[in-house]
Amino acid sequence: MWATDDIIETLGYTRPTGYRYVRELVEAGFLQKVAAGRYGLGARIAVLDLQLRQTDPVLRAAVPWMHRLVEQTGFDAVLSSLWHQQVVDTHRVSPDDRLSLSYGRGRVRPLFRGAAPKVILAHLRRHPLRRIYEIHAAEAAANGIGGDWTEFRRYFTAIRKAGFYFSDGELEPQLGAAAVPLFDAGGEVLGALALVSDTGKLRAAGAERLAATLRPLAREIQAVLNAV
């Protein structure tokens, strides 16, 4: 819950503007009053989430193939998207409930750890990748991804050439992932399709075998998106 004055101070609005925005957000259902002068997120967000899951073309294209992927491998399949320099998981298909993941639908992921974020960044064009480096250079260096722009770009160029990334315990020590990029009809990277499981099972499956499994399904999803 946030008090109106805290919202106004944090966002830097004048009091009249801040109060007007809060009132409009309440009327639209994005905020709801939960106590005197205090607000939480409103039910409209849940409505939009349902609409997104029912109508998003990427989800509609990918989810059927994700189920096939899970049946074929026995691993979890996770779809991730890039949004405003953030990577967010948007869907997960699991063969059972035994695998516990710290990250899930809607939770922002670290940019420089894990298979999905790295394979997405590797397929960005030069300008947006350079922009991400300029904003997050210290974080990139802390994660061992280059001390300058040249090293940073070289790191992701290698992943781009492979067209695939295998993560072994980078995000969570006991888990690993293998990911390939997904592209829109214009050839811009829009997300990643990943297989996730405990590190032992993924190592046993082998990185190249996982890549060979993921790539054709990514092409099938691409074909569906191109036909939309």
Which descriptors apply to this entry?
alpha+beta; three-stranded antiparallel sheet; 2 domains; Arc Repressor Mutant, subunit A; 228 residues; Beta-Lactamase; six-stranded antiparallel sheet
Topology:
Layout: E1 2-3, H1 4-11, H2 15-28, E2 31-35, E3 38-41, H3 44-55, H4 57-73, E4 76-83, E5 86-93, E6 108-109, H5 115-122, H6 126-142, H7 149-162, E7 165-168, E8 175-183, E9 189-198, H8 199-205, H9 207-227
Antiparallel strand pairs: 1-3, 2-3, 4-5, 4-9, 5-6, 7-8, 8-9
Helix pairs in contact: 1-2, 4-9, 5-7
Q: How would you describe the overall organization of this protein?
A:
With 228 residues, the chain is an alpha+beta fold. It folds into 2 domains: 2-47, Winged helix-like DNA-binding domain superfamily/Winged helix DNA-binding domain (Arc Repressor Mutant, subunit A); 56-227, Beta-Lactamase. It contains 9 helices and 9 strands. It has helices at residues 4-11, 15-28, 44-55, 57-73, 115-122, 126-142, 149-162, 199-205, 207-227; strands spanning 2-3, 31-35, 38-41, 76-83, 86-93, 108-109, 165-168, 175-183, 189-198. The chain is globular, with a radius of gyration of 20 Å.
